[in-house]
Structures are given as structure tokens and as C-alpha cells.
Amino acid sequence: MVEAVNSSLGKMLLEEVSPVVMVLCTPLVEETFLKNGLSFVETLKPFCNFSNIDVPVRTSGDQLYRLKKFTLRLFNASDIKQPNVEVAKQRLEHVITQAGEKVFHDLESDPPQITDILSNPESEIAPTWFQYYNKELIRTLSFSDHEAFDHPVACLLVASSKDEEPLNKFVDLFNTNRLPSLLNDGVMDPKILKHFLLVHDNQDATTERLTSKVLSEMRSTFGNNECNLLCTNSSKEGNVEHQANPWASFKSSVPAEKLGFALTGDDIGEIKDLMQEFASRHIIPYMEQKVRDLNQQISATRKGLRNQIKNLWWRKGKDDVPDSTKGSIYTFSSTESQIRILGDYAFMLHDYELALSSYRLISTDYKLDKAWKHYAGVQEMMGLAYFISDQSIKEAEYCMENAFSTYMKLGKSGFQNATRCGLWWAEMLKARDQYKEAASVYFRICGEEPLHAAVMLEQASYCFVLTKPAMLHKYGFHLVLSGDHYKICDQVNHAIRTYRSAISVYESTTWSHIKDHVYFHIGQWYAIVGMNDVAVRNMLRVLDCGNQSKSTQEIFLRDFFDIVKKTGMKHEVVGLRLPVINMSSLQVIYEDHRTYASQASALVEESIWQSLEDDIIPSLNSGKSNWLELQSKLLPKKYKESNVCVVGESVKLDLEFRNPLLISTSVTSVSLICELTANSDDLKLDKEPSSLSLETEHNQVTTSGLSSFTLSEVDFTLGGGEKKLVRLTVTPSEEGILKIVGVRWELSGSIVGVHYFQSVPTKAKTNKAKRKNKLTPTDALKFLVIKSLPRLEGSIDHLPDKLYAGDLRYLVLELKNNSESPIKNLKMKISHPRFVNPESHEEELTPGFPDCLKKGPEQNTVQRETSRTSVFAFPKDVSLQGDRSLRWPLWLRAAIPGTMSLYFTIYYEMENVSSIMKYRTLRMHYSLQVLPSLETSFEITPSPSRLQEFLVRMDIVNRANSDAFEIHQLSTVGCRWGISLLQPVDTILPSKSILPGQGLSCFFMIKDCRKPGIEEEKTTSILPSQTDTKLITQDDDEKFFDIVNSPLASFHESERSCHGTSDQLSPNTVDFILISRLAKSSNPSAEQDLLKILSHHSCHNRIRSSIPLSWSLDGPKTMYHDFSTSFCEIKLKMVIRNTSDGFLSVSINTIDGLPDAAAPTPSSGNLSGWRYVPAITEEMKLTSDVMGSRLGKPPPSMESSPPFIWSGSSSTKVQIQPLSTTEIPLQVSVFSPGTYSLSTYELVWELFEHENASSATSGTCQGYPYYITVLQSE
Amino acid sequence: MANTACFIIVGRNDIPIYEAEVGSAPKREDAAQLHQFILHAALDVVQDLAWTTSAMFLKSVDRFNDLVVSVYVTAGHILFNGIKSFFQEVHELYIKVLLNPLYLPGSRITSSHFDTKVRALARKYL
């Protein structure tokens, strides 16, 4: 903490509360001094501050002390009056305006950083003109009637030696009529010290003698001590230049070097001596004397208990006097004023103890008198005296507070005093480091007048910076308040200055309203002072004002564009926030060796393509002996690190623009900013052994310029809050290195927004990362442009986007190479071979679709090549060049319902182009929506009667939403199974078409056409026509669809491989193909839809059976036998087939005679209620319900039948290999003619997983009824 | 009497995470920014006070003309500027927001549910 005296308030007090000397001079004196550009008072002013006067002083006490610092204030007599309020106001305004002009040039610079502000030393935080302003402000209150320190202590009478009768002049000067009114009307004491000064101008050499004469006359008249001679203007030429001009700081309006040019160093020394003498010899002793006198007088009248009581009594009596605050009831001679004078004199003589005691004495008096203004004045002085004498801080503050509030109570009249009091108070608090309190004091003295308030608020704000810790929020707020006030009184420069400082606080905040407010206003104001470019720079910050109301946004934008127009030029703004660019949406689409057929295919993830292309792209690492060597030959290092694009092929860039505002904005001329540099330099630096093609490039030095690439321009309008994805392209037309640097756009034709894409310094990217095509900013935006290459374009005609499951279409893939150089070695891979199947040769279908699928007259049963690879290689002779296009037929079949993405990739190699790029791929992507259509399921059960025949139940459900289908044909695949319809479908389905949601069951019989027992032999004996059956006949001569030769077969292959590959082609499965078509009546508008054919493939349908074996009993049905000779022996043959994969052991038990009714057959259908449930064990007994019930109810004819017996062995046990057949001979002996049911046998089987397995499942099967009729032979 | 109030939840680093202009007075264009200014300036005082007291509710910490700033400091030093029971209720709401796993502490609260609740509370208490 600074010592009170040395604090700024201390210095201020020393200056402001100091003896006043009234100067009275003749016009000739003024004239003399005006030669120097200064008035008389001004000439003397710099010499009135004595920093080391060293005068011994004794006031009330006996103690002598030495006065070190002392100041005199000189005033012309005419100035000794209360200043006119208006004039004072104008002067203050002038001070501010001047200061504003000074700061004008700083305004263009960037706003200060908050850290800079905080690191500044305290004295530099607030502009220096504040002190000056405060001084001026305090001066507006000088010579007030309730205070005594402005009362003149002495009077300096000055006459010139050129004056006629100078002695009379002196008398005239102190003529009471000419004295200030304050002295005359009794506010101030007119009886003051007088001092006489004769001025001699050395430039008037002639009067020198006269001067000494006048001086001696003066001395005799006014006294020897009171008269002085001052000789000036010693310099004849008047060209003295003062190194440190003492007047410079006092008078700034005239250039400093002009001041005092006629005064030599001696003259100045003389003035200095004169003033020092005047102060030390005359004024101080005079004041000393006066203090002592007054003190004595007051002690006599007021000190002591008696006087106090008397005084109180007397004051009580004056209570009734009204209006004690108004008018000057206290003249200088009143006791109160005398005490006040005593106090002020003591204060000025730095005897603060005496001053305090006098002030204390008088303050109670004033309080009792309710002379509030006087009271406040005294309190104020007390506060200052406490402060400066380093006494109780609390007391000092209390007094100031008291004074301040008392002044405030006086209302308007007291406000100015309150202001001064406040300023002092604030200074006092500042000196004590109580900045926060100081700020609040400044805030309290703001008052109504805006300019005044602005200055005070600004001072308050600086206090907040100085508090520890700095209160930056408050700082900013008060600066903004202050700026607003400055603006109200048109001090725009100051307004900008304060806002500029405030920006440093708010810059990083996210308080949007604040930010918008500050930037918008400072922008406006910069525009007012004509700094349009700075205005624009600030206004730009406001443009992203999405949170403001629509009207505010409109105002912002309107003003912004107004200012921009004023500047009259296009502004290029980096980082314009209107519209906002969503960098995460940035996507670069370019084609190197990968080319894309359409936009959609370019957006597909790279990994999908890569997995698809894995086996068709030649691997770089394979083949050659040294892969390192190979790669470096193929791709110089530089190329590997950057993306590659081809001359003439555009690089596309997708970028999302978002309008942050509620009002719509139109954005025009959006284009990329690119750089294309010839890569020769780069390559030389590389010193890589480059291939031949690169050598040629070296010679073609391309310069960067607009001509080397073309850019697309896009215009669009963004509605409020709208987002738009914009595609921008750049097409290089020369080789080199292309960099996409950023994007530019125009707003209303005058603002050019520029957004540079973040350019992070290239880190060593691994090759892997690059291949993955991760869009790291630099990698993605830097391209190596290589020579023009052929580029294949491809499309698939008429590819439907919506179709039913099973739909079979004929499509054409059209490939085109626009360049002259041919391409070869075309290969294609399709992501879903299940869906798409290329035809093996290029030719148009002769009969047209779908007739081509039908069986021709000649039965061409050549087996298609079934070994399918996933890569389809076009014939070697296919080469594309020029305008020729290649039309390659494709088959499409919607295999499963759902949304499918089909990916095609076509690999091709360039011929005759020696380039770093040997091959390219064309990627095509299509998506299909496959709707569910017919759903089929098959159940195959063995026929009970015939070993080779199976019953098939087909269930069809139409899952489509709206369309009906007609079923056309059901075929079995392969040559093994013949199929026949059990019942015409027309009888079940008269409408002939299956409506949406309708289900249908059909029954078929399939027959194994192979010769039994010979499993491996290929059977071609069956006619192909037997494998198809027509379900609904439209017309009789309609042919079957060929499922062997047509694409249906290959689709079936892929279906097979899709379904259950684990199944090792079990021969016991049947594959069906159901061919259907859309019903004619369902959609009359779309005629061509009728051509649609749907094929439904059902693969690996197993023959379902509960027991692992099937058998049949063969033998004669009817026999003639002569029973008279012997009984009849009939030979039978039982064929047992193992239908399972395991090893089967079967024993045949024959039962003679009728079965007993009490036989323990648990499967009796007559039992109800309780039923024995056998425990599920390994040995599970499987019995056929059907057989059981039959057994329980033998046919009535059997009751009367005489018995027969099974002859031969009663039990035979056989082992049957998996899927093989065994024959067992059986014999029955019949004793009488009749019809017999030979079902009285059972087969007990055990099934093993493999030959030596111990665990087995077993079961018993009852015999089938087999009737044999034996007749008596004739 | 028509009153006006501005309620702001301030997160760490003085970042406002929720703002609402509540109160029955007709909206003035400049009210929003004035309120922001005042509340922003009050943060200085709050920062001083928050560490000196254990109370969550700091009554009228700062004032500007006839606008009084009251503050409710949560344990996590998130400030609620704006009156006691109101604060308490909003604090509960705020905790609910914090419990939302999708809410990143310190980010702006955009929940419309939170907004309507706060406004309802403001009507009830202010």
C-alpha cells in the first residue's frame, strides 16, 4: 500500500487543496507575457509547485515542523467565481472529445487480449486522460460557498513598468469594485495579504531606468517587503528553445516549442525564485499567523465545556430559522466560517490534527443548524484529513460515506458535490486497494447525464480489473454500459474503445446474446466512424445468430450488408459462419483405378467393394520375385501417399451447408478452391527411378492456374434452418498434383465466404490407411493427377427397383468405353450370384422373353456346365474401344424377399497405355426391393403301398399384398424323379389364380425312376417331360419351361448351394421348381407385367417318414390250389429298404393264428382316459397308430377265415446297409381256400448310427394288410 | 405488477447450459441481452461467494438497478441464477437431466420436457 501522501489522492489533494493566490494585473503586463504565447498566470503556473520548499511551520502547538511540499494556485481575479455550469459541461465534453480523437487511430488494431490487460501495470490500465477529466470535474466546483480552501489567501498585484503611473495602477487594481463578487458579498474575506510586483520587459530597453525608479517608489509606498521586480523577455531575438518545456503540460493547444521562446534560462530562474520567495516568505508565514490567531480566538469562544454548552443553547434557539440550507447564512466573519477557515488553513499547512479538530467542532454545529451542504463539506474534509494523515481508515470511509449520502440527499444541487466527494472517495479506496468498493462508488456517481455516467462507468470497470482476483465479468459489463452511454452522447470513438476492450472479455464466452450485442454494435459504430472493413470484420461474428429472433436476425443481416455495400468491394471472409459448413459431412468421391457407374455406387463402403474385388484384382505382392522392387516400379512413393485421379475425370466433393438463421439465405457461386501444381519438382526431389511415363511428364511443365482445371459452380437458397448437401466438382485438365484447399461462396454478391479445409500437416500414413480410403483431411484432398485413361461406363437397362420374389428377368448390361484406347480382359463379379446370372455369350435372345425359356421342339438335353466360379470372365476377344458398346445379357431372379443391394464390379485392363495404372474397375450398385410372393413348402411321405413312389403335398401361400398369381408348372430337378398330378388343380382352384393371402394344397405323386438297388448308376432312361407337370392349363399346346437348359437351372444351382450346404447331396432329397406368373386380371394397366415369370425353388426336400425302413410284401394275389392233395404253400418275398443313414437290423416275427383280444397292445384306439405313456428311453418303441387300430379291428371277413400258418422260420433277422434294400423270402401255408390277410407279422428294427455303435433306437412295425385269395383248383 | 425474470443455468467455465426468459412482462427485444449481461457480470460475485459459504441458495448476490440476481449453487458448482423453492425444484429437474446417460454434463440442455417443466415452475413460484 502506498503511503497516503504519495498516493494519487494525496497528490491530488496537495494540488487541489492548496492556497489560492488571486492575481490582479494590468493589461500591459498581460501584453508583455503574451509575447511568449502565455498569459501571466500561465507563465507562473509551472513554478507554483514546490517539492522541497523546506519551510518551518508552527501552528497551534508549540511543535515546529517543516513543510516539504507545497503548492500555490494562481487565479486571475476574474476567474474567482463559481464556474458556469454550462461552460464547465462544455469544457468536460471537450476534454472527452479530444481524448476520443487521440484514440481514433488505435481503434483499427485488434482488440487487446484479456491476459494483456491483466498483465499491464496498474497505472496503464486506465487511459491517462481520466485523471485530467477528474481534475476538470473537481474544478467545476471550485469557489463553492460552503468551503474555504478556495478562498484566496493572498493577492498578487502586478503592473508593468510601461504603465503610466504604476503606483496608481496598483491602487486601482485592488479597487473593490473590480474585485470578484465573492469577496464583496461577504463569502470570502477581502482582507488578504497583498503583494506587489512590477514587471519589466527587457525587450524595452529604454524604460530600464524608469523601472528602478518606480520600484523604489513602490517600496516606499507599500512597504519594502511586499514589492518585487520581475524582469522578463531577456532574449532579444525570441528564439530560445527549452529542452523540457515547463509549460507544455499546462497548455496543449499551442505547440510546446513556441511557448516561452522569449524567456531565457535566467528569466525562468528569476520567476522560480520569485515564486519560491513569495510562498515561503509571505504566504506560509501569513497563513501560519492566521491559523494561530484563529485558533486562539476559537479556543476562547468555543473550546471548553462552558463554551460548548453556551453554543448548544444558542443553536437550539436558532432551530426555528427556516431554510437554513439555502443562501449563505454564514459569512466569512461568522464563527462557523472562521472555524472552517481555520480547518482549511491547517489542512493546507499539513497540520491535519488541527484541521480535524476544527472540522469536528464545526460539523456538529452545521448538523444542528441543518446546514447539510456545509455539513457534508466538512465531513468530506474530515475524511480526507483522516486519510492523508494515515489515521483510521474506517473513520475516513465513514466520513466520506456520510458526506456522500448527505450531498445526495440534497438532490440535484448536491449532486456535483457528491460527484467530487465520490471521486475522492473512490481514489481513497483505490489507494487502500479496495477496488471493488471504489467501483461501486463510481457506479453511484453515474448520475443522469450520459456522458458523465459513461466516464464514471468506465472508471468503475477499470477498478474491477484491478481487484484481486480480477472481476472480469463485471469489467466487461461496465465497459459495455459505459460504451452505451458514450454512444448516447455521440462519443462514438469512446464507445468503440470501450466495446473493444469488452470484446476481450466476451470473446470466448458462449453467452450468445451478449456476444451478438457487442459485436453488432461495435460493428455499427465502426461503420459510423468510417472504418468499414473493421466494421465488417466485427459484424461477421454476429451472422451466426441462430438463437436470435427472426426480426433481430433481419436487422443484423440488413445492417451487415449495408456496411458491406458501403465498403464498395467484395470482401473475402475466411471462416464465414453463414452458411455453416458441416465438415463431418465432407465426402470426396474420386475415381482412380476404381470407377463408379453411378452416384449410389460411389457411396457404398469401400470394404464391400474390396471384398468383392479381392479375387479379380491382380495382387501386387504376388508373382514377381521381389515385391518391393515391383511396387516401387509401379508406384513411386509419392503416388502411394496421395490419391490418384485422372485428367478429364472430375473429383466430386459433397459438403453439407446449414443455414443457422431463421430467414432464408441465398448462396451463390459455390465452388471449390483448388491448386494444381506441376509435379515435376516433387518428382525431382524424390529422386526415384521413375517409369517411362513419368519421364515424359517432366517435360510438360504445367503451371498452376485457372486453366488447368475446371470448377463447378452451384447456386442454392437455404430456407430458415435448412440443410443442404451440395456436390462440388473439380475436373483437372492437366497432370500434376491437385489439392482441394477449400470452398468459397458468395452472399448477396458482395461477401465472399471462404472456408479452408483443415490442413493438418501430413503424417506418415500407412499404406493400409490410404487403401481403406479413410478421409483424413490432407490425404483425401490431395490428388495426383495422371494422364487420361480409358474409362468404362456401364449400366443395366430396365433394372426394376421393385419386384416379387422369384421374379425372373432378362436384362442387358451395357458397357461403353468412350476413349480411343481399347480395354481388354474384362471380368465381372457379382455380389449375389443367387440373384444375377450372366449369360455365357453375347447374343440377343431370338424368341424373346419368356418364350426362350420354354422347351423347344428339339429336345436338347445337353447338361449345362455346372461348375460355377464367382468370377465371370468375358470372352478373351471382347475388347472395347471408341463408341462401340457391349451389350451383355444378364438374368435376374429375385431370390428372397427383402431389400437387396446388388454390387457389380467389372475389372478391365487398359491396352496400349503405359501408365502407373494398369487396370481399372467399374463398380455398379443397384438396390432392389423384393416383395414376398408365393411361398411353397413340400412334404414328401413314402407311399404305403409302393416302394418307389412318394406322395408329395405342396402347400402354397400367396404372401403378396395385392397381386394374384397363377401357378404354371411344377418340375422336379434332375432325372431321377418323375412327377405326376394326383388331382387336377382346376378342381381345387377354379379361379385358376391364387389371391393374396390364399393358401392351397396340391398333391402329387413322385416316382423314383432309378432301377432299385443300383444307386450309383446314372439313369437317363426317364424322359425329361416326365419331370414336369402342368398345373393349370391355359391352352393345351403351351410348352413347359425348360428347367434344364435355361438360366433356371443355374439359378437352381445357386439356390441349392444356398440352402443347406451341409447336406452332402443326400440322394434321398427332391428339388422342386414351381413356375408361376402374375395373374392376368390382377393389374390390367401393366400389360408387360404379364410376361413376368416367377420361379420358386425348393431344394433338399427330404422324404419324411417316422420309421427308418419301408417294406413291401410281394407275392401272388390269387392262387388256385387243390386242397385235397395238400395244403397250399405260397412263397412270398419281402423287400425291406433302409431309408435311413444308419445301419438297420430288422427281425421279422411272424404270428400264427388270430391275435388275442387281450394282447398287450398299448396302442389300442378303444382305450380312453388313462393311457400308458412309455418312458422316453433310448429304446423307444415306435408303433404306428394306423397299424395298431387296424389290428384292433380286424376286418370282419377274417373272423370266419380259417387260420393259416407262416411256414419257414418264424423269426428272421437281417442287417441292412444304409439306403439299401434286402429281400427276404417268406412262406405261408394255407390249409383251406379263402381270403387271408397276411398282416400278422411284425418287424422289429434297431437302428444304429454306425456299424459298431452300441446305442440304438428301436421299434416295432405291424405288418401291412396283404390279402391273398386261395381258391380250390378245379 | 408485471415482472420479468431470466433464468440461466451456468455450467463450468461459465458456459450457459440452459436459458429461459420467464415472467409475465411483455417481451422486450433488448431484455434478453440485458439479462444476460447482468447475470454474466454477477458470476464474479458468485465465484467469490460460492467458496465462502456452504449454503446453496445465495440470495440477491448482485443487483443492477431494479433487477436482483439470486443464485443457487449446486454441489457440482453449477449455478442457477434466477428464488428458493423454484431453485430447489429446478435443481431436482436438473439432477434428473444429469442422470440421463445421454446427457453430457456441461453441454447445453435441449430437452423440451425440461424446458416446459421449468416454465411451469416459473409460473408457479415467480
TrEMBL record, chain B:
InterPro entries to which the protein is assigned, alphabetical: Longin-like_dom_sf, Sedlin
Pfam families reported for this sequence: Sedlin_N
Protein name, as recorded: Trafficking protein particle complex subunit
